[in-house]
Amino acid sequence: MSGTFVGMPKFPVAAREALGDAQLRHNLAHATGTIRAKRLRLVEEVNESIEGTSGWEELRLAGAGVKESALLTLDAQLVRLEETLTANGATVHWARDAAEANRIVVDIAKRHGVDEVVKVKSMVTQEIDLNGALAAEGIAAWETDLAELIVQLGDDLPSHILVPAIHRNRAEIREIFLRAMKEVGRPAPEDLTDEPAVLAAAARAHLREKFLRAKVGVSGANFAVAETGTLVVVESEGNGRMCLTLPEVLVSVVGIEKVVSTWDELDPLLRLLPRSSTGERMNPYTSTWSGVTPGDGPQEVHVVLLDNGRTRALADKVGRQALRCIRCSACLNVCPVYERTGGHAYGSVYPGPIGAILNPLLKGVGRPGAEGEQLDSLPYASSLCGACFEACPVRIDIPSVLVDLRAQVVDAHRGGVPKPEAVAFKGAARTLSSSRRLAFGERFSGVGLRVGRLFGPWSGARDLPAAPQESFRAWWRRTDGGRDEGESR
């Protein structure tokens, strides 16, 4: 199973299939609706606590400012982060792409002679398919987040940034636990029910032996503080704390965009993230670590700073704002397209509105083959309603980036054999630019619309109007410019 799993059908094809799954749509509507309601309550709470001002909007502006400032000075911040991490006893590695990052982590695991590692939930390790790279070397990577565990045991693919198993209901989860846990460790109890607390207890018992046995832990990071050489992970279950403290060796793979300059700048981000993601005032667990502390926690710490297309995105003047993303998933939870299709239709570990811009920005548009077609389809996976921008805690203007990426997709395919849509628009431009040609073409509008229904590029998703019985020109001539017969001239 590939971490990015790009190569699935183009978004329209995958979305059409997802729309036919009634259970999926029910699961998504219930889950996203619940999260939206919780988030809205806490946003209003912030507004009410600062009388006379829009407290939430001020917080959004502060968060966006912190991230934007770090991106504009990214080169200096990363050098400073390396210096402070090294001073704290960590070993810093730089990785240009997924292959380099995977090789670094695999080499560390092999050097310590382990055949398994435990993992904190991490989008970036899914992005590079670290689990697949470890498996190819005979090393099992155990996901310890509950939702990630469900996905892994079900041999499934994540479909949400925050809740990877959002497409599953609790009855399905019970069946997965009963079937799969016994194959990779402690089995689920035979009398397992589908009560959430019972399912969580089964997962806890299953994972406990893995936590206590593992010598190597792997994590990502929500933030990296350049000033102090501190990495930060926020989570809700405590599994992250176990992975970060129990193993002898800790390897953290961190996207270079996660850096912020100072400890104080974490303040707005740590208030925005839990409210936007889980609808909580603060995360139950906020873990920070700065290198090695003798006698406490891992005694060997590695940090892999990953590019993997991020400098490409940074060079895009419109799209670079996507690197502000703090992976809260608020845009997914308000998106009418995501709610009806789910995450798998986007063909990446980054689904929803943010995935529709982040994947093309990281990889580039106009690439050949099935992967290129799939990436080029993502900027069109949106109605441009703007709900994602309103929800984004760091004010990423996703609709504007989508429109700009659509232009890039069109520009990338100029030349060669034109697409039917391009031919249709060129023909329309030529016809509309001449009154004589337009008058001639009006005679065949009925035929054109009927042909468009059969072969037009938009006919699969739009209803074309019926052709009028009489053109405007003909009506104008017949009525002498619209005047009634009895009207004075």
TrEMBL record:
Name the keywords, alphabetized: 4Fe-4S, Electron transport, Iron, Iron-sulfur, Metal-binding, Repeat, Transport
| SUPFAM superfamilies with a match to the protein in the record | 4Fe-4S ferredoxins (SSF54862), NagB/RpiA/CoA transferase-like (SSF100950)
- The LUD domain covers 80-306
In its keyword annotation, does this UniProt entry include Metal-binding? yes
Q: Which InterPro entries match?
A: 4Fe4S_Fe-S-bd, 4Fe4S_Fe_S_CS, FTHF_cligase-like_sf, Helical_ferredxn, LUD_dom, LutB/LldF, NagB/RpiA_transferase-like
Give the transmembrane ranges. none
Q: Where would I find the 4Fe-4S ferredoxin-type domain in this sequence?
A: 322-396
User: What is the protein name given in its UniProt record?
Assistant: LutB/LldF family L-lactate oxidation iron-sulfur protein
